[in-house]
Design brief:
By secondary structure, the chain is of the alpha+beta class. Helix content is 35%, strand content 23%. Strands 1-2-6-7-10-13-14-15 form an 8-stranded antiparallel β-sheet, with helices on one face. It is globular, with a radius of gyration of 28 Å.
Length: 351
């Protein structure tokens, strides 16, 4: 081998060593592979008398941690139910409803906050959402069991039995000036419970999550495939889906008379009542509201069910609130929606 050839070989060897070293340096600077994302889910039973579905998105090597988060989210739902259910005598709301006049009832900060927030929705909805309408709700339930319509006198007495003027707050305590005063937080407490379960998931560091209680939903983040969450909107006049919503970091709550109602003499009456007239709401077959939180969406879904299409103009502007309402009947349904609602809606099949 000539001297020049030897030098070329030597240079080639050093070049190979240098490239190998550089390659090693590049290799060691690469980030470690990230574990794939998966969905961990649960369907706890016995929550608020309806169905419940919980999902969290975590790394594939953190499924046990995901199960722990789901249990904590379930506990949050049950905690709120234990505080605010009007059907449980041992709840804070139950104790308030059965308390005699002028007796102070201690409340948790959570129940106090939700009750005060419910009061604010009376003004926002022009009285269409009013949790003090519980005597009216109970009247229609009782008449449904008895198979008769309530009399005008019964409706008037039920309307007069409970109102906000009789309720007084003092810190985290409340009393009523009339023993008949009672509240039903069913149109807002479920949304609040959903928000609390979502908060548990977010604080645990989950990449995404979804809470569905009886068809009222809130989600955050994305699914493992980086797509948005798909939320079904049922056709109120049939068993199929009317469409789907593609959302993230939002809540979607629906109210309607197609699942919960009182039937008297072969006619259905909505479980949602108009506090102003004492009569069941009948202007909307279903209302779906999108909001940044489920508490707000829940309350507005109930209020709009009473107000009808004209109520869409009462939605606060700039707060991310959007709504869709289906009126009419199976033979001639009509859809009303705010300008921004359509951007979330997917109709996969023509009606």
């Amino acid at each position: 081998m000539t001297r020049r050839s030897s030098r070329l070989v030597r240079d080639a060897i050093w070049l190979g060593v240098l490239l190998a070293a550089l390659g090693a340096a590049v290799f060691w600077k690469l980030p470690e592979p990230v574990a794939s994302l998966v969905t961990v889910s649960a369907e706890p039973r016995g929550i608020m008398g309806t169905t419940c579905s919980l999902r969290v998105v975590v790394r594939g090597d953190q499924t046990e941690r995901g199960q722990e988060v789901l249990k904590a989210a379930e506990a949050a739902l049950r905690r709120v139910e234990g505080l605010m259910s009007s059907y449980r005598a041992d709840s804070e709301v139950g104790r308030f409803n059965t308390a005699p006049a002028m007796e102070w009832v201690a409340l948790s900060p959570e129940t106090t906050w939700v009750l005060r927030l419910a009061r604010s929705f009376v003004d926002q909805t022009d009285g269409a959402f009013d949790v003090t309408a519980r005597p009216i709700i109970e009247l229609w339930k009782r008449c449904g069991r008895e198979g008769r319509l309530p009399s005008e006198d019964e409706i008037e007495k039920a309307r007069a039995a409970s109102n906000w003027d009789a309720i007084r707050f003092a810190g985290y305590a409340v009393h009523k000036s009339a023993a008949t005063t009672s509240v039903d937080l069913g149109g807002i407490a479920k949304g609040y419970a959903i928000d609390q379960a979502i908060l548990v998931m977010q604080r645990a560091g989950c990449r995404g999550g979804l809470v569905d209680v009886g068809g009222d939903v809130r989600c955050f983040g994305l699914k493992p495939d980086a797509s948005q969450w798909r939320i079904g909107v049922r056709d109120p006049f049939g068993k199929e889906l009317w469409g789907k919503l593609l959302i993230t970091d939002r809540a979607a709550c629906t109210s309607g008379d197609y699942l919960r109602y009182v039937e008297i003499a072969g006619e259905r009456y909505s479980h949602i009542v108009d506090p102003r007239s004492g009569m069941p709401a009948k202007v909307a077959a279903s209302v779906t509201v999108l909001a940044k939180d489920a508490t707000t969406a829940d309350a507005w879904a109930t209020g709009l069910s009473v107000l009808g299409p004209d109520g869409l103009t009462r939605l606060p502007r700039g707060g991310g609130l959007e709504a869709m309402m289906i009126t009419g009947d199976a033979g001639g349904p009509k859809v009303h929606m705010t300008d921004g609602f359509a951007s979330f809606l997917v109709r996969e099949e023509a009606r």
